[in-house]
Amino acid sequence: MPRRVAVIDLGSNSARMAIFERTSRLGFFILREYKIKVRLGEGAYENGGVLQDAAMDNVFCAFSEFKHFIKLYKVNKVLCAGTSALRDAPNSSVFINRIKNELGLGLKIIDGKMEAFYGGVAALNLLSPLSEATTIDIGGGSTELAKIKDGKIIDTISLNIGTVRLKELFFDKKDISGATKFIDDMLSNLPNGFNSANIIAIGGSLRAISNAIMQIKKHPLKLVHNYSYELKEHSSFIEKLAFANVFDLKDFPVKKDRYDTIREGAMIFSKVAKRLGGKKIHTSGAGVREGIFLSNLLRPGIKFPQNFNPSLRSLQDRFIETSNPNTPKYAKILFDVLKPLHKLDDKYANELVIASKLYSLGKFLGFYSEHAHSSYIVQNGLNYGYTHEQKALISAIIFYQGKLISELGEFKELLPSIDEVRWLSFLLGLAKAVNISDEMEFSFVNHALHIKGIKNFFMVKESIKKLVKPSIFAITFD
Q1: How many other CB atoms are found less than 10 A from the CB of residue 350?
Q2: What is the mean pLDDT of each run of 10 residues along the chain (478 residues)?
Q3: Contact 15/83 with Cβ under 8 angstroms?
């Protein structure tokens, strides 16, 4: 697969383009992302689905701009997908030919089940693992659902309920009761097989709702991807948003550019989530675009190899010139050797090992404050596959690295106890200090940690002595 791939997703409301850059065979990151509100479906739903000239002109201009950035970033491959508005339109072929002939872009219509599948692929690979869940992807013209179970997408469905469709048919006419009945009628035939306590929220409206809840709760990590909340705790807020007067939207923590369709999105989401028996909402910042990219990247399969994380690999590819396998190895050994003393839950060994792979990310900026730079990059670049709690902990372990910890700062609510963070950061600092040799040996006897292999390395021993021990015990060099 080429190094840089652009994926264009044309919906009823917006046109979006993401430029993906591969850093190795399966490692990647999003280099740039663009969004233009084109309203392709505007006026279509009241006219038999026929795309209106003004709307098509808007999309053409948007695609022209996308083409500019495709050339600017030397993109090697472009994948274009059109969803609900194009599916419904009897004149879609005319517009597709125009895009092909004048811009050289091959725009393909994907059916509703395939759109749902792509959302499922993104959720399956880029969220923290869930044994069972249902995705809800609300767009301008339709809502797609994918049922995920045991690492597989087992069913998909597309429903003709979308924000722009609801707006034009009901909200603009102040027919709110008609909108609720329309949704209820659509959901009456939804198979029970899609029911799930875990709901994965995809799409701009649902990210906006999650972002609003994050602001209300003063959530410290300002990234909506993988943010989770209990539906019961916030269902009244979502319903208030759905039935709010348009002039009262300023009282909600929602961005202004979402005002035109956020009520419709909230209404659809509230009804669909309840119909599915949803209890916990997991927000996905990834959707159709990522699903299309991953389906091409991972073919013939649709899932990354076990224990592979694309963000972890991408950060290592870009910012760590030479990896030292000894640090992760010694971090895990020290975790096990000192377990009688620290008594940490085994689950934290995973975060410790990840931190030991990424602690030197900030080195490319310079020696000074390397740990702080590395910690920041983890917070903002370790995007996929980790919960907010895991990201906060990995970042904290890297930031402190055996230094004195008097308080946990802004991420306190996401972190375990201060004693647990002290131990994990100490273990990283110690593993980092002793990574000079492949033949280190460790044992814990008579309340003393015995380290064999660095007896004549005075600088290493001095750096170990500077570490703040989280408990009283001796360290000896045999």
Answers
A1: 15
A2: 94 92 96 92 80 90 96 97 88 93 95 96 96 96 96 96 93 95 95 98 96 96 95 97 94 93 97 98 97 95 94 95 86 97 96 96 88 95 96 97 91 96 97 89 94 87 92 92
A3: no
Name, in order, each residue with C-beta under 8 angstroms of 161's C-beta and a sequence gap of 6 or more: 142, 143, 182, 183, 186, 268
Distance between first and last Cα of the chain: 51
Q: How many CB atoms lie within 10 A of CB 303?
A: 14
- Phi/psi at 462 (5° precision): -65, -40
The whole-angstrom separation of Cα 359 and Cα 306 is: 23
* Whole-number Å distance between alpha carbons of 225 and 207: 8
Residues 6+ apart with CB under 8 A from 178: 169, 170
Nearest alpha carbon to residue 393 among 362, 424, 438, 366: 424
Contact at 8 Å (CB) between 470 and 397? no
Pairing of strands 14-22, 4-10: antiparallel
Instruction: Yes or no: say if 66 and 15 are a contact pair by the CB < 8 Å rule.
Output: yes
SS (H, E, C) the chain: CCCEEEEEEECCCEEEEEEEEECCCCCEEEEEEEEEECCCCCCCCCCCCCCCHHHHHHHHHHHHHHHHHHHHCCCCEEEEEECHHHHHCCCHHHHHHHHHHHHCCCEEECCHHHHHHHHHHHHHHHCCCCCEEEEEEECCCCEEEEEEECCEEEEEEEECCCHHHHHHHCHHHCCHHHHHHHHHHHHCCCCHHHCCCEEEEECHHHHHHHHHHHHHHCCCCCCCCCCEEEHHHHHHHHHHHHCCCHHHHHHCCCCHHHCCCHHHHHHHHHHHHHHCCCCEEEECCCCHHHHHHHHHHCCCCCCCCCCCCHHHHHHHHHHCCCCCCHHHHHHHHHHHHCHHHHCCCCCHHHHHHHHHHHCCHHHHHCCCCHHHHHHHHHHHHCCCCCCHHHHHHHHHHHHHCCCCCCCCHHHHHHCCCHHHHHHHHHHHHHHHHCCCCCCCEEEEECCEEEEECCCCCHHHHHHHHHCCCCCCCEEEEC
The letter for the amino acid at 63 is F
The answer to whether the predicted template modeling score (pTM) of the entire model surpasses 0.90 is yes
Sheet containing 474-477, strands listed edge to edge, beginning at the edge strand earlier in sequence: 441-445, 448-452, 474-477
